[in-house]
């Protein structure tokens, strides 16, 4: 798995994209609301959701729970998206 200069991988980007999608599909969740519920700064969560920093496993699990899903489900969808993109590229 290739990393960029800050150690961010394609999987990290995929996870961020999946979290963004989950928030967009939700009628009640927002970055601000999730951050408040978890007791973290909105900017901290926003930087991860927008793909500027990777999620830690514990933060991903907490965010997933707020969204009514699991970290493993988010990661699995991100992996499938990466596999699909690689299949199209080859």
TrEMBL record:
SUPFAM superfamilies: lambda repressor-like DNA-binding domains. Residues 35-74 form the HTH cro/C1-type domain. This is HTH cro/C1-type domain-containing protein. The lineage of its organism: Bacteria, Bacillati, Actinomycetota, Actinomycetes, Micrococcales.
């Amino acid at each position: 798995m290739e990393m960029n200069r800050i150690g961010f991988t394609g999987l990290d980007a995929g996870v961020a994209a999946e979290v963004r999608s989950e928030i967009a599909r939700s009628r009640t969740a927002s970055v601000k609301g999730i951050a408040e519920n978890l007791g973290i700064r909105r900017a901290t969560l926003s930087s991860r959701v927008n793909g500027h920093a990777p999620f830690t496993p514990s933060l991903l699990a907490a965010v997933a729970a707020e969204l009514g899903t699991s970290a493993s489900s988010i990661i699995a969808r991100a992996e499938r998206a990466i596999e699909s993109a690689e299949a199209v590229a080859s």
